[in-house]
Write a structure and sequence with these properties.
about 30% strand; 5-stranded mixed β-sheet; 8 helices; Molybdenum Cofactor Biosythetic Enzyme, Chain A; alpha/beta; Molybdopterin biosynthesis moeA protein, domain 3; about 425 residues; Molybdopterin biosynthesis moea protein, domain 2; 7-stranded mixed β-sheet
């Protein structure tokens, strides 16, 4: 760590310095379903073929394709039905010339058969709806079947010994399903980081308690905890620390069992912003201000925990929008790195702004906006309203952050800007 200072640095440099501290957490074994969203720590190899046997892709009749040659509606081929076969059962005999087995989707193809004729290409639909009518002793086929028609072959999805899910992959619902198809119940994945979250300030009240004059409810802890959870971490709320060095020190020490400690407020230049003072005493901390808006005041460093472990600390601004934007830009990449994920960068689109966006102070401005597709197929960005850093509803309405670079004085309606997309699901 460097000596604490007040020099304002760029967003990119701040993120680079933060990410340099973090590494992938150790692996642990987790039940497959609970590992959703985590990164697989090693390859998963198939112990058998999938499917394990040739089977039918649809309901119909297992036949010898040659027996159906020339079949048509005008000249159907009649076959003798020797069995009815449901999925989960095996026909122990062989299908001979002129024979067929009535078969349900997923059932193994009987020996001798090499094709499946769907019900709708036979006279079964014409025989009525009763079970006795459906399961007749013979069937007429109205269309010739090609060899392998409607047959799923052994190992066509997964072959025994194949790496089915490689290490390093994020487990999505599809991977969970594939692992379950292999009979896997637990997998080694990189551990989810525990993030301790501490709010600071004499004016902060816990939601659910009476609100005294001059107080506000603590939204920062909940919005940041929700971000932690959404990004794959495990939030641990430490409550509210009052503006005294003694209480701040005690509460911060409670958070040193976590993988990262996050505080909100107390890192600016105010008379009662004591977090920076405690940090300077208790840890090796860089203080900096970041050339961004919202979110200029930011602290990052590390505390010495019992056993010599260093716990990284991210000190967020107190304004709720600043807190959320700062955690998006710096906390999210840190969580992803601890998870073993490299895909922390959000997608960026170029959109035409519908509103004027000012940027007069030489900082990178992240304007809350809603991005939608226009009639011309292009992306358009509209501000979510006033852009004050205390207006949390401006984040609630946004699905992106329009980026105005440090050296650009602003944007006018019709200008094209880059937008960091936060939520594609809510892009109209």
């Amino acid at each position: 760590m460097t000596t604490p200072g007040e020099a304002m640095i760029s967003v990119d440099e701040a993120r680079e310095r933060i990410l340099a501290f973090f590494g992938r957490l150790p692996a642990e074994r987790r039940p497959v379903l609970e590992a959703l969203g985590q990164v697989l720590a090693e390859d998963v190899v198939a112990p058998f073929d999938i499917p394990p046997l040739d089977n039918t892709a649809m309901d119909g009749y297992a036949v010898r394709a040659a027996d159906t040659a020339g079949a048509s509606a005008a000249a159907p081929v009649a076959l003798s039905v020797i069995a009815n076969l449901a999925a989960g059962y095996v026909f122990e005999h062989e299908v001979g010339p002129g024979q067929a087995v009535r078969i349900m989707t997923g059932a193994p193809i009987p020996q001798g058969a090499d094709a499946v004729v769907p019900f709708e290409e036979t006279d079964e639909p014409l025989r009525g709806v009763g079970e006795a009518a459906a399961k007749g002793s013979s069937v007429r086929v109205f269309k010739a079947a090609m060899p392998a028609a409607n047959v799923r072959f052994r190992g066509e999805d997964v072959g025994m010994g194949q790496v089915v899910v490689p290490g390093g992959r994020v487990l999505r619902p599809a991977e969970v399903g594939v692992l379950a198809s292999l009979g896997v119940v637990e997998v080694p994945v990189y551990r989810r980081p525990v993030v301790a979250i501490l709010s600071t300030g004499d004016e902060i009240a816990e939601p659910g308690t009476p609100l005294s004059p001059g107080h506000i409810y603590d939204s920062n802890a909940y919005s940041v905890a929700a971000q932690v959870k959404k990004f794959g971490g495990i939030p641990r709320l430490l409550g509210i620390a009052r503006d005294t060095v003694e209480e701040m020190t005690a509460r911060i020490r409670e958070g040193l069992v976590a993988d990262m400690l996050v505080t909100s407020a107390g890192v600016s230049r105010g008379d009662f912003d004591v977090v920076k003072d405690v940090l300077a005493r208790e840890g090796a901390i860089d203080f900096w201000t970041v050339r961004m808006r919202p979110g200029k005041p930011l602290a990052f460093g590390a505390f010495e925990a019992p056993g010599g472990r260093k716990v990284p600390h991210l000190g967020l601004p107190g304004n709720p929008v600043s807190s959320m934007v700062s955690f998006e830009l710096f906390g999210r990449p840190a969580i992803f790195k601890m998870l073993g994920r490299s895909d922390w960068e959000r997608p960026v689109v170029r959109a035409i702004t519908r509103d004027a966006v000012g940027n007069a102070d030489g900082r990178r401005f992240f304007a809350r906006c809603i991005v939608s597709r226009g009639d011309d197929g292009r992306w358009y960005a509209s501000l979510t309203g006033a852009q004050g850093s205390g207006m949390l509803t401006s984040m609630s309405a946004a699905n992106g952050l329009a980026i105005i670079p440090e050296d650009v004085p602003g944007a006018q309606p019709g200008d094209e800007v880059e937008v960091l997309m936060l939520d594609w699901e809510h892009a109209p």
